[in-house]
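hiii, so i know i said id send this last week but things got crazy w the move. better late than never?? heres the sequnce for the chain we talked about at the cafe, plus the structure i predicted for it. fair warning i was half asleep when i ran it
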Amino acid sequence: MLSGRWHILLFCIVMFGYSRDLPASPLSMLEPEFNALYMESQQQPATALQQIEIQLGSAAGPLQQAQLLYIQAELQTLLVYPEQALESAAQALALIDETEQPWLYHSLQLVRAYAFDLAGTPAEGMAITERVIQFAQQLQHQQLFIQALVVRGVLQLSLVNYVAALQDLMRAYQLAPTTGDGVVTKGHIAGYIALVYEYRREHELSIPYFEEAVAFHQQQNSPVEVSIALYGLGKAHSKLGDYAVGKSKLQQSLQLAEAAGDEQGVAYAQKELAAIALLQLDPEHAKTLLLQALASFEQANNRYMLLDTQLQLGRIALQAGETTTAEKHLQQAMHFADPEHMPIQHAEVQRLQAEWLSQTGQNDEAYQLLKTASQRLTELQREESTQLLHQLRTQNELDSRMLENELLQKELELQQSLVSNQARHQRLLTTLLIGAITGSLLLLFLLTRIWWQRKRLHQLAHFDSLTSLPNRHFTLKLLDQQLRLASRHHYPLSVAMLDLDHFKQINDQFGHATGDQLLRDFAAECQKLLRASDVIGRIGGEEFLAILPHTTVDAAASVLEKIRKMTEQLASRYHEPSMITTVSIGVCGFSGYDNADTLMLSADQALYEAKENGRNQLQLSPAA
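okay and structure toks below
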């Protein structure tokens, strides 16, 4: 389920960027008067919709009407009215021909894809987007291709294909320029990437991209876009437990949305502020905010947010013991929970319904429904966090207490009626067997998770998460081992310090995503050029340590020179003509008496000399 609105409005911003390089005839961009109308509409989209309704009645011809309907459809998508957007797009497509107006035709198709996504049917949008991608590839038009990649990435996100979504969005991010008027830039795409990390619950990774989006749209003086980026940023901080910062960002988002007449933006911010209020033990304030948001979501028929809001209201009612109100909200939530496209949410609704059944005394039905929901969640969330494990254990304790209550009830029934003794014993045995199987499955799941967590902790303790190379601690430990072996068996050993030149400038100029990819590519290529017995580890931001056993300094210099030449070729991968990638290297050999500290100091001094002599070179330690 898409819980954020970032992709919707960001789509509307970039839609007018890729059209400028297409031929002048047929239409390659909105005509000047309509383009000006669109730009003005970004400040007050709700007011602009009313103006377009008036202008549609006086439009001169079909092409002019189609352009007005195009803007109308985008603004309706922006304000989260998917059904109206689909209708407007269909009317516009009926007025034009694909062969005569290919740009406008495919632009409208992408609007439709977003509207289908918002309406809860992203699979329909995927088929449309694939056709647009084929058209862009045939045309060899990079800007249209970038935009189509972004659309497909968002749809993959809705379909819970997080890896595919991140691949499409990262590819678009790498292809997009850093700056430019009327084109899709990295600043436009940053918010999409942040969403992927948000849905994967990697909130720390999402924050830099949300901040990049906020800064970009503030520079563009686009208040609605800033509101959406602040919404994502506030939500990320709240998920990390920084409620003060999260609440501040969400309040800023709400104020900007109110000023722009963006009712859906206000509703989104209210829903997240309600979540913070619940965590701060203020359910009445949370309920007020949620009911206000619910009215806006119902007006727009926003299925994703209607489901989420009804779920939160159901939880509040259950906590307050208001079973009738809880039943109403949970029935509404189940109406919107599509088990195919929203399996986790569907199972969560079942879990809350089981809790409602328990509160109303329907223990058998509650147990069966809870069992079904728990099994489904186990299948879908095998890689959940430690917090989920704690929740499962808590749920297991609840099941055990329910079984104990049932046992007491059965014993009482046995005392009251000897006639039905056999049947009651049979039900008791069945219940105990189900409980034992469930407990065993949960215990097996818990043990599996503990094993996985230990393996993961070992990986985190010894290897760098970005490059998968040994981290500083592990690299130095390996160096000590190699020094002891070299000293004991009297064989040569060489050590080198490698430092990527001007790496901070690459990060600042081309973005952190490009810098991270450069580190990954450099590490991978180094491993290809070194032997299996050699070691290379990341010991700093852009600094690496290479250990070459059974290797003289001259032989090591020959291998490391290949690495230096390879680094010069890396820049060609990133489609940035002004990007230059080089590395400086300092090499020293083991004398037989050095320890790790003196050996690294010698290599570091040689590296310093390489830097001082102009970088992009290899220097041997004088001791070598």
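btw The mean pLDDT is 83. thought thatd interest u
miss u guys!!
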